[in-house]
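Exam revision sheet. Question 4 asks you to relate a sequence to its structure. Input first:
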Amino acid sequence: MWFRPTLLPHGPRYAPLSRPSPRFPPTVSPIPATEPAGASLPSRETRFGRTTGEGDGSVSEGALHVHRVGVAELQAAASSILAPLSVTAPDADAFRADIDAAEVGRLAVARVRGSGHLVSRTPRAITSSDPDLLKVTLHRSQPTVADQGGRRIRAGSGDFVVFDMTRPYRLSVADGCDVMAVGIPRAELGRHADTVARQAARRLPADTGAPAVLSAFLLGLGRHLDELPAPADTHVGDALTSLLIAAFTERAPGRMDTATELVDRIRVYALANISDPSLCVRSVAAAHGISERQLHRLFRTTGISFSAWLRHERFARIRRDLLDPAHDGRTIASVAARWGIHDPRHLGRGFKEQYGQTARELRQERSPSLSRGRLRRSD
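Answer key, C-alpha cells:
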C-alpha cells in the first residue's frame, strides 16, 4: 500500500496520484508514468491526508490514520498508496477496517486491521508505468491464503509473505485480520531484489533468526508510525531495508556473478571516499584496474551511470544533514564540502534538479528562524 516512486536525492519518494481512470471507481486514481528526476516532492499531507466516506480519519505529520472505513474506502486508500487494487468482502455492508500508514525513509509501512476481505492485483490493472515494487506482509491473524504465479499457500499468524506488485496476485484474509505491510522499490534491495522476488507467495515463518528480528522490529514500528520526524525516518527506513534483506536471504543465499561483485566493490570504495572532490570515473576505474569504458559498461546493467549514482549519493547525504538540527550551526557550503561538493553552482543546479528546490530553500523551509544572512552566505 504505497506510493509511486519518484527519484529524489535520498532515494525514491512517492508522488500523489493525478487523474482518475475509467477502470476504477472515481475515488481511486491510477499510477501515471514515473516523473523524471527533479520533480518536486509533494507534501506529506498530500500523500497521506486523503480520507473518504464516513469513516474517521486523521493526519499527523507524515502519517495517515483512517478508521472504520468500508470496502470502497479501503480499496481507494490501498490503490492510492500502492497501486490499483481490487478489494471485495463477503459482507460489504458490515465491513469495517482501520488503516494506519506512514512513509519511512524510502519505504512505506502500513497496518490494516478489520473484517475479512480479498485483495486482488488483476492483469487489467497492471501497466508498464507502474512502479517496480515488492510488497512484504506480516500476518498477525489466521488463516491467510496467498496466490501468485500459480503458487497458492496458506500462511498463519507470525508468517511473512512477499508479493511482486508487477504481477497479478490475490490475498485473502479472515475476520479479525491484522496485517503489517511494507512497500519497497526493488532498487532499494540492490542485488538481493531477485532473491527476494523469487520467494513470492511463499511462507516465511518469523520464529527464529533474522525473520524473528524483522518481525519484532516491524511490530514495534507499527506502534510508532507517526513518531519519526526527519531525519530519523531515513535511518529507520535504512534499518528496515537491511533487516528485510537479512530475513529473506538468510535461508535462500544467492550466488553473485563476478560483474555484480565488482559493482559492489566499486560502490563500497566510492562511498568510503565520497568526501574526496576528485573522485570520478577515471580515478575509480584506475583504483580497480579496469578501463573507464569497462566501468561504464558495468554500471549500465544497474540502470544508472556511475556519475549519476555518485551524485545521487552525495546529494542524499547533503539533504540528510540539512534536515538534521544538529547541523544548523554549519553553513550549507561546509555541509556540501563534507560530501565532496565544493562548487556552489554545481550544488545549486544539481540539488534543485533532484529536489525541485535549492539547498537554501530546503533549510529555510525546515527552520525559518535560521538567519537569512547566514543562509545567503552559505548558498
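Marking note for examiners. Residues 192 and 245 are 7 Å apart (CA to CA).
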